C-alpha cells in the first residue's frame, strides 16, 4: 500500500454492531473482501480498478474507545500502480467516502 491516509470516526454503537456495518459495506459489492480477523474486529478489503482509478486497499479496525466505538480506516494505493503527488490526498477522500458508506449502514 503506498501513500496511506488514515481517517477515524467515533460512533455510539457497540463495537460488534460497527464491525457488522463494515462487513456489510464491504460485502455490498463495491469492494473486494480480503482478510477478516473477527476476533480483533479488523478487515482488509480493496476497491477495484476503474476508468479513472487504479483502485485502493483498505484496512478497517474497530475498537472500544472512551467516547464510544472508534472506527479507524486506512486507505492507500495498490502496489504496482503509478504514483502521483496527490495520492495521499486522494486516498484520504476515498477513506472519507468509505466511512460515510459504513455510517449509512449503521442506520
List keywords for this structure.
107 residues, alpha+beta, Alpha-D-Glucose-1,6-Bisphosphate, Chain A, domain 4, 5-stranded antiparallel sheet, 2 helices, globular
Low-pLDDT residue spans: none
Number of alpha- plus pi-helical segments = 2
Q: List the helices and strands in order.
A: EHEEEEH
Number of domains: 1
Radius of gyration: 13 Å
CATH topology: Alpha-D-Glucose-1,6-Bisphosphate, Chain A, domain 4
The major pleated sheet works out as: 5 strands, antiparallel
Structural class: alpha+beta
Mean pLDDT equals 90
| The CATH H-level homologous superfamily | START domain
Helix content: 25-40%
Strand content: 35-45%
Q: Give the N-terminus to C-terminus distance in angstroms.
A: 31 Å
Number of strands: 5
**CATH level 1 class label:** Alpha Beta
Characterization of the model:
With 107 residues, the protein is α+β, with helices and mostly antiparallel strands. The protein has a single domain (2-104), classed as Alpha-D-Glucose-1,6-Bisphosphate, Chain A, domain 4 (2-Layer Sandwich), CATH 3.30.530. It has two helices and five strands. It has helices at 15-27, 87-104; strands spanning 2-11, 31-37, 42-47, 56-65, 68-77. It has a five-stranded antiparallel β-sheet with strand order 1-5-4-3-2. Helix 1 (15-27) crosses helix 2 (87-104). The mean pLDDT is 90.
